[in-house]
Amino acid sequence: MSDDLDDAVAQFLSDYNSAMKEYEKGYVDADATLSVIDAHIDELREARK
Known about the structure:
Helix content is 84%, strand content 0%. It is mainly α.
């Protein structure tokens, strides 16, 4: 893996964990959480290219 991809994966995992913690605490609803995760997945896909 390239450094950029490694960084993107690390950032994705961190952002994913943050989004899930906010959801579990009831700060955001499921649709908003999925929207955030989808955006981060798009960024991860871009880094893979």
